[in-house]
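Structure tokens
________________
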Amino acid sequence: MKLALFADLAGERAALEALLQSAARLGECEAVCLGNAGASALELMRRRRVTLIAGPEDRALLKDPVGLERADVAYLRHAAAPRRLVAGGRQMLLTSDPLARDAAYVVRPGARAEIGDLAASTGRIRGSQGEAPYLVLDLESGEMSARHAIWDAAPTRHVE
């Protein structure tokens, strides 16, 4: 089993679609958003059963849910708490909290997510095209790798 970890979509559905298509090619893989999905990505994340660990922007949407579908509000309300797990014998914490430090390895969104010797971007996706970066965590071995799904908003296309 693998996890595809990403964050900070800024509501870019095209980026999310490309990322989920890319992650699906990995086989048995659970998609986990480490926060700040953006309102326009919620419906697709909910339908595709993406686990959401709410970030500050997601929590702000709950305070002012004007324009959100009822199902999307429920999805935000039921966002997962920071997730603790053991992968390859290492304790890990998946969180949207930039200050969390209470595990051997902490995976959080930011310009650089550092996990052991690996440093990779989990994004901040902006614009009409680009790379949707994500990290792949193998739960059995504990190995992590960085991947990118290339996307273009009009029309949505996916290239790897």
